[in-house]
Specification:
7-stranded parallel β-sheet, 269 residues, NADP binding, cytoplasm, Dihydrodipicolinate Reductase, domain 2, binds ligand LLHOTIJI, 11 strands, 4-stranded mixed β-sheet, 35% helix, Rossmann fold, binds nicotinamide-adenine-dinucleotide, alpha/beta
Length: 269
């Protein structure tokens, strides 16, 4: 059987280049397209050469319709605006859309739900095994501890990251809220800056650090009286996200339309 053909969007980006390197080496999937935004300097060039290596036989394109039509899956780590446009095209092509992009608002998520009526969408704010295990642990610990234990999620990322809190921090916050039988919308603490009020009991707070080349670090702090429990994940290599995304694209090949996440892919449900 032929290996599924995969298109990578945001081909010149941090995640795009990591995905392309792994796909060019893969025995299970093949790179069939590389997309960038119109006007990007790499458009028209061979992706392997643009990345400073050997020719890969795939030209970077800014014309998504024919590129996606030739693929079984699209792996997309770009921006919310770009991902919403790709969701429509990927749904029309009935291909699997793996979405790593973060920073969506409620309206964006409704649009993704609509696209998933036509083809599978697998979306996660973090595609690594470690973080998806941490989500389950966070839910469990939050359920075991009473609301006198304050929950704070602290995350750190590189200086180029544009969204905060990170997608991962929001996944962890949602898991903590679920553990307490609520939604994050109900428990999320407003951002703190200047003179604010004291912390309200049962709320879940977020703090974000941005600097240098930090790949991604997340602490879920459960702060009680006289003791503190900290659950931590540290990413040191973006390959963990890219490997998860490729695994998701392969897993999705025999799935029907619908919305899935990495818990489905990893069998953690
Ligand atoms: N879910 C995860 O596991 C995970 C892991 C890492 C990053 N991310 C998320 O992935 C996204 C990208 O991260 P990054 O560090 O690679 O960013 P980046 O800025 O390095 O790359 C984004 C790329 O997308 C390109 N782009 C923008 N609009 C486009 C369009 N219309 N078509 C094609 N390409 C387009 C940009 O030119 C850029 O090359 C962010 O939202 C980030 O939070 C998620
Ligand atoms: O580098 C990024 O950007 C990352 N984004 C994801 C998030 O928002 O949590 C995952 C970690 C890296």
């Amino acid at each position: 059987m032929e290996k599924p053909g995969i298109v990578v969007t945001g081909a010149s980006g941090r995640m795009g280049q990591m995905l392309i390197r792994l796909l060019l080496d893969s025995d299970e999937a093949r790179l069939v397209g590389a997309l960038e935004r119109p006007g990007h300097g790499w458009v028209g060039r061979d992706i392997g050469e643009a990345m400073g290596g050997r020719p890969a036989g795939v030209a970077v394109s800014d014309d998504p319709v024919p590129v996606i039509a030739a693929a079984q899956a699209v792996i997309d780590f770009t921006s919310p605006v770009a991902t919403l446009a790709y969701a429509e095209l990927t749904a029309q092509a009935r291909a699997v859309h793996v979405i790593g992009t973060t920073g969506f608002d409620e309206e964006d998520l409704h649009q993704l739900t609509a696209a998933a009526r036509h083809a599978p969408i697998i979306r996660a704010g973090n595609m690594s095994l470690g973080v998806n295990l941490l989500v389950g642990l966070t839910r469990k610990v939050a359920a075991a501890l009473g609301e006198e234990w304050d929950i704070e999620v602290v995350e750190a990322h590189h200086r180029h990251k544009v969204d905060a809190p990170s997608g991962t921090a929001l996944m962890l916050g949602e898991a903590a809220a679920e553990g307490r039988g609520a939604t994050l919308g109900e428990l999320r603490s407003p951002a703190r800056d200047g003179i604010t009020e004291a912390r309200s009991t049962g709320s879940i707070g977020f703090a974000a650090i941005r600097g240098g080349d930090i790949v991604g670090e997340h602490d879920v702090i459960f702060a009680g009286q006289g003791e503190r429990l900290v659950l931590r994940h540290v990413a040191t290599d973006r390959a963990i996200f890219a490997r998860g995304a490729i695994r998701a694209a392969l897993w999705g090949q025999d799935k029907g339309p619908g919305e899935y996440d990495m818990h489905d892919v990893l069998g953690l449900n």
